[in-house]
Amino acid sequence: MPRTGSVGQKPVSSHFVRLNETAWTILRRVARPLDDSVSDAIIRLAFLAGVDTSDPEDRKQQCTASGRVGTVTPHHSLREPVVMVLRNAGGRLDVPTLKRELRQMLADRLTLADCRILRDGDERWWHAAQTQRLYMIRDGLLESGERRGWWQLTETSLASR
Question: Residue 75 carries which DSSP code?
Answer without folding.
Answer: G
